[in-house]
């Protein structure tokens, strides 16, 4: 039977129970926001069988586009629980969207004045969850950044893996890379690359616990780098992005093309061609036309636009857009229901127009870099 592992201060705000799947509410809200905001989320498997077996899973995911990266990862593993910054669990509004095992980062202590000692160890909670049969989603970088390579990986994943191996727990380690064509744009395409399971070759032998853990950390880092955005410099990153964008327009996987380019830097100049500006301009026109058809949703679109200006970097723009849009939707949707009774023809036609614009932006305005 699953055991509760969090102390009372968090238990009041979190329903996390070791071994339990992600609560149904969060499965629904993550799915709804994910499917509305992003035009298409494709799952690219290195080996689908490995991702479907019945062992508990430790899913190690690259971190590209703020906290909503978790929603994208849940597309592949919808019942996985996650480690979550206390910043996402510290207010009723944030808990509407996020749940998980609380983690107090250094910047959380500085920003929120939170004392990490009042919480259970996130590593111990993660270990208990996997031992109880649950799937765990972990972002080893600890924070997202839209850069040409990952942020430094933290040692927490290696500590969890080392403890589970020491205790003889059978589980799978699955690396996962996230690839956004346009991380800051509504209706962007996203691909999730599920890599080959990581098999830890390092053994305890005569190594100290710290040395063994460091070896595990190195193996995990190498495996993640192989299937994530990991370019040597910004120039290669931009060329890989352009290469993957053009290959995707021809029907190939964006993620596989990006990984192929960054891991094989002998590509010819023909493969390094710039993105066609005429094509980009045409896509932008379609996007603007699509938004015009959504005039009935103007309060939501405006709120999302205003909220995006609170972002401090490209990787947090969609985070604020989604929060602003979701809050506005909670207010505007009931108003539309009331207006529908008084002006059924106008509201009905307007909603049909908005649906047409929504479909149009996905068909004509989603592929933008």
Automatic annotation (TrEMBL):
GO molecular function, one term: acyltransferase activity
SUPFAM superfamilies, sorted: Glycerol-3-phosphate (1)-acyltransferase (SSF69593)
Domain Phospholipid/glycerol acyltransferase: 57-181
The keyword Membrane appears for this protein: yes
Keyword entries, A-Z: Acyltransferase, Membrane, Transferase, Transmembrane, Transmembrane helix
Pfam families cross-referenced by the UniProt entry: Acyltransferase
Membrane-spanning segments: 285-307, 319-335, 341-361
Keyword field contains Transmembrane: yes
Name of the protein in question: Glycerol acyltransferase
Source organism of this protein record: Proteus terrae subsp. cibarius
């Amino acid at each position: 039977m699953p055991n509760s592992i969090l102390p009372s201060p968090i238990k009041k705000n979190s329903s996390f129970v070791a071994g339990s799947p992600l609560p149904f509410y969060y499965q629904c809200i993550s799915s709804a926001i994910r499917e509305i905001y992003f035009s298409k989320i494709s799952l690219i498997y290195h080996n689908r069988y490995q991702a479907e077996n019945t062992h508990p899973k430790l899913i190690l995911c690259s971190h590209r586009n703020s906290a909503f990266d978790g929603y994208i990862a849940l597309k592949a593993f919808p019942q996985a629980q996650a480690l979550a910054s206390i910043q996402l669990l510290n207010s009723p509004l944030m808990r509407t969207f996020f749940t998980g095992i609380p983690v107090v980062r250094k910047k959380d202590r500085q920003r929120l004045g939170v004392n990490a000692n009042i919480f259970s160890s996130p590593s111990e909670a993660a270990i208990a969850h996997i031992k109880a049969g649950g799937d765990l989603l972990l972002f080893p970088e600890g924070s997202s950044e839209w850069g040409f390579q990952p942020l430094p990986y933290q040692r927490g994943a290696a500590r969890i893996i080392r403890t589970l191996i020491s205790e003889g727990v059978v589980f799978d380690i699955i690396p996962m890379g996230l690839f956004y064509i346009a991380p800051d744009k509504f209706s962007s395409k996203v691909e999730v690359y599920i890599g080959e399971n990581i098999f830890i070759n390092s053994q305890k032998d005569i190594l100290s616990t710290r040395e063994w853990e460091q070896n595990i950390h190195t193996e995990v880092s190498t495996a993640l780098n192989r299937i994530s955005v990991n370019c040597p410099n910004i120039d290669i990153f931009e060329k890989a992005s352009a290469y993957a964008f053009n290959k995707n327009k021809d029907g190939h996987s964006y993620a596989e093309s990006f990984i192929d380019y960054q891991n094989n830097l002998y590509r010819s100049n023909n493969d390094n061609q710039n993105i066609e500006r005429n094509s980009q301009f045409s896509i932008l026109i379609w996007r603007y036309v699509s938004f015009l058809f959504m005039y009935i949703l103007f309060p939501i679109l405006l709120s999302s636009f205003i909220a995006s200006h609170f972002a401090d970097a490209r990787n947090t723009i969609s985070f604020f857009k989604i929060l602003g849009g979701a809050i506005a939707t909670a207010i505007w949707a009931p108003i539309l229901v009331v207006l529908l009774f008084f002006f059924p023809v106008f509201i009905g036609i307007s909603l049909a127009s908005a649906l047409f614009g929504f479909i149009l932006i996905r068909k004509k305005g989603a592929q933008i870099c």
